[in-house]
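Write out structure tokens for Crp/Fnr family transcriptional regulator.
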Amino acid sequence: MKDFKQVLRQIHVFAGLNDEELDQLAAIVLFRPYRKGMFIFMESEPGDALFFVQQGRIKLSKTLADGREHILHFVGEGQIFAEVLLFDDGPYPATAEVMTDATIGIIRNKDLDIFLRTHPDTSLKILKVMSRRLRKAQMQIRDLALKDTFGRLMSTLVKLAGEYGKETEEGLLIDISLSQQELANMIGASRETVSRSLNDLKKSNVIDFNRQCILIKNMEKLKMWME
């Protein structure tokens, strides 16, 4: 592990802290390695910590009443998660699963609460993260209520491209390993429906894809079909 201060400085919500403050924060952080497929916590378990991704990628999901998985969002390097429990004690509202081998920073809420009392700017940054997550959740609810499966898929592809898109000569590559089943779990559809829709988009030369990656070749048409 590289110098703790350098690691913490790369986390957005801690980026404005000086060396002395980073030293104080480093004293309360535990770094832990996780292998792909492991769970960091499960939905409804008692929650008492804030987490951030130093390396790797995490999937946050909820279990629906019928037992199906609904993927809320993905958390990448430099991002925090489970931040809501810092301000509202209770169980974890979702399950956190490791998508790739990862190193996770863990700060117990009681320790972070003491730190934040003297660093209100960091508290504000965490609240802004919560606000963005709330807006995304509201958009997901809107899409599930108002759009058909095809529209939800278009909306999700545009969102993933905005978060993980990488420009290539062929188009915009969604740089995240994502199976068709996981994509289906994001939009509340069956894998077979998603597979048919992706193949239709491929035939229309809007996207290209393989088992894990999606390349958007015509973003304008994708956005038009999203509406």
